[in-house]
Amino acid sequence: MVSLLLAAALSQPLWFDVQHQGNIYAITPMAHLSVTCECQVQITFQKIGQAGTSTSQQQGRLAISGDENIALSRMKFTLDSHEKALITLTLTDGKQLTFEKRLVLPPQ
After folding, report:
1. Number of structural domains the chain divides into
2. Cβ(91)–Cβ(97) below 8 Å
3. How far apart are CA 45 and CA 104, in angstroms?
4. Could you give the count of Cα atoms lying within 13 Å of 70 in the half-sphere of its Cβ?
5. pLDDT over threshold 50, residue 4
6. How many Cβ atoms sit within 10 Å of the Cβ of residue 91?
7. Which domain holds residue 48?
8. What's the pTM?
9. What CATH number does the domain containing 76 carry?
10. Distances (CA, A) of 81 to 10, 14, 42, 52, 104
11. Which of 2, 3, 19, 91 could form a disulfide with 26 if both were Cys (CB 3.0 to 4.6 A apart)?
């Protein structure tokens, strides 16, 4: 069982912890790398609705220890019934490692 979890973590080291109640969402982008990394992190948030699209972006460098779960950010927002959100998380060391994970809300 542990080896299956480890294989899953190695194959997809990025994920989103998603919590929501009604139309309020709390999202925590997470990472778990098998090696220590001085990484560039970029998080892009798009909110799409009847009035158009709003985009915001965070980026920075972060030291990530190997074999530890780390929260990369935290965001909280509301989505009305006619809106959706797209969150893109990119993590790279600028050399060998590059990972990307996307989240669409509400789930399709």
Report:
1. 1
2. yes
3. 10
4. 19
5. no
6. 23
7. 2-105
8. 0.85
9. 2.60.40.2420
10. 35, 28, 27, 15, 14
11. 19
